[in-house]
Amino acid sequence: MPFISVISELTRARAERFAVPLFGAFDGFGVDGIIEAAEEQSAPVIAGPYAGMLERPSGRALAQYVRARAEDSPVPVALMLDHGRSVDECLLAISCGFTDVMYDGSRLPLEGNIVETRRVVAAAHAVGVGVEAELGHIGLGSDYHSFASQREGFTDPDAAERFVAETGVDALAIAVGTAHGLYESAPEIDLDLIAELAARVSIPLVLHGGTGCTDEQFHAAIAAGIAKINIATDLLVTTAARLRELARTGEPGYFDFGKTAVETYRQGCARYLQVLGASGKSRCR
Fold it and tell me: Which of 1, 65, 117, 252 has a 20 to 30 Å separation from 148 between CA atoms?
């Protein structure tokens, strides 16, 4: 399919009450697993390299690999920079052919976040690239007790309404009780806050920190207004465990490790596509 921004899919997901997943993508094995799962499930999907990868030639090459795979695929595949740390990093991703970028100015004061997000939006929209931003702050699961469980950094609805109006951003990552990585205790998601934010802004809302959430939490968050969910840690941890198991049993060859990585990623992504209601949602060519 044409390699274009995922924003139209997210808008449809919000209206039809499903979520498009962004799966962490760090190499060709992961990308193959992501796209194979999307094709198997007839689902739209986003491959999401993390900020910093573009500092290496392998990161820029990965962008071209995703493009080649996407153009040969019958399902929508987008490529989004995850947690761009600066305007310049987002501009680099745009120049490398990313269909979408996430600019993370969540550590800045509101005014600064608005100013910097505006800069990214202006550059991205000029070439048809979608932009996600973050308001509130989504921290690490290892620090969960010190912030999210105390409602520290949660997204303020008044600020969200102003932020969306003044930046023209296409999607908004919100802090509502999830965190990145592995949690030190079960996450508690504020569904009422998601619903209020969905009522205050018309753009798709994004839930980061999908690893560790239950299927029931996913379903409830989507029903409240979430249209995109990011998942990486679970896929990485599960794949690493499967590779360690492979190394301990028998005498695997070089290519066995790559096949196992792709298959483990595919299985994990397929399950999430089903849970998030994205299966069967592709408008295939």
Answer: 117
Q: Contact 206/132 with Cβ under 8 angstroms? A: yes
**Number of folded domains in the chain?**
1
Q: Mean pLDDT of residues grouped by 10 in the chain (285 residues)?
A: 90 97 96 98 96 87 95 96 95 96 94 98 98 81 50 86 98 86 70 96 94 92 97 95 93 94 98 98 75
**Which pTM value belongs to this model?**
0.92
Q: For residue 283, is it within any domain? A: no
Inside any domain, residue 1: no
Q: List the helix and strand counts (H, then E) for the chain.
A: 10, 8
Active site positions, annotated: 82
* Residue 269 in domain: yes
Parent domain of 248:
7-275
The DSSP element (H or E) to which 29 belongs, if any, is helix 28-41
Classify 229 as helix, strand or coil: strand
69 in any annotated domain: yes
Taking the C-alpha atoms of residue 256 and residue 243, their distance in angstroms, rounded to an integer, is 9
What is the distance between the terminal CA atoms of the chain, rounded to a whole angstrom?
7
Strand 205-207, strand 45-48: pairing? unpaired
C-alpha to C-alpha distance for 148 and 175, rounded to whole angstroms:
8
User: Residue 5 region, left (φ>0) first, then alpha (ψ -120 to 50), else beta?
Assistant: beta
Say which CATH number the domain at 129 has.
Answer: 3.20.20.70
